[in-house]
Amino acid sequence: MTEERELTLEEQVAALESERDEHLNDLKRVAAEFENYRKRVLRDQESLVARAHARLVKELLPVLDDLERALAAAEEHEEATLEEGVRLVHRELEEALRREGLAEIGTKGHFDPHIHEALLSQPSEQDEGAILEVVQKGYTLGDRVVRPARVVIAAAKPEDDGGR
């Protein structure tokens, strides 16, 4: 009876070791599959970024061409042509960036700290917080602020001190 019991214990240990080995192999397989998945996702992300860069560069190439033409006109001292060329380059670049989702931040109305950066406040007849001057345009890309608009805002009107 003890011999039979030892045999069953040995069989149980062997069965448990076999089960352990199966689970270990399963874990190794899952780990390898996950590592392959991680590498594939990384390659896909790199490919997506490369395609996005290529698309943006392709959009900007006509701007580069126009700029080269404007510089060539400047060498010939054709000021009117130079100004026209620079305006053309500006328009092309603005359109290319707009197609990519870039939008100018509005600066009419009151200061909004989420999209504006107040550089100065100065006394004015306008309401407190009104935007008086735009120092640098701001832009959004989709719903993200790329660069806040830098503005000068109206300060609070000084209170009448009663003739003191």
Structure description:
With 164 residues, this protein is an alpha+beta fold. The chain has two domains: 1-100, Hemagglutinin Ectodomain, Chain B (Alpha-Beta Complex), CATH 3.90.20; 102-159, Head domain of nucleotide exchange factor GrpE (Nucleotide Exchange Factor Grpe, Chain A, domain 2, Roll), CATH 2.30.22.10. The chain is built from two helices and six strands, in the order ααββββββ. It has helices spanning 2-75, 79-99; strands at 102-104, 116-122, 131-136, 139-141, 144-147, 149-154. The strands form two sheets. It has a three-stranded antiparallel sheet. Strands 2-6-3 form a three-stranded mixed sheet, with no helix packed on it. β4 and β5 (144-147) form a beta hairpin.
Q: What tags apply to this protein structure?
A:
58% helix; three-stranded antiparallel sheet; 18% strand; three-stranded mixed sheet; 164 residues; alpha+beta; Hemagglutinin Ectodomain, Chain B; 2 helices; Nucleotide Exchange Factor Grpe, Chain A, domain 2
**What are the secondary-structure elements, in order, as H or E?**
HHEEEEEE
Biggest sheet record: 3 strands, antiparallel
pLDDT averaged residue by residue: 85
State the CATH topology of the largest domain. Hemagglutinin Ectodomain, Chain B
Number of domains: 2
Can you give me a brief rundown of this structure?
By secondary structure, this protein is of the alpha+beta class. It has helices at residues 2-75, 79-99; strands at 102-104, 116-122, 131-136, 139-141, 144-147, 149-154.
Helix and strand layout, with pairings?
Blueprint: H1 2-75, H2 79-99, E1 102-104, E2 116-122, E3 131-136, E4 139-141, E5 144-147, E6 149-154
Parallel strand pairs: 2-6
Antiparallel strand pairs: 1-4, 3-6, 4-5
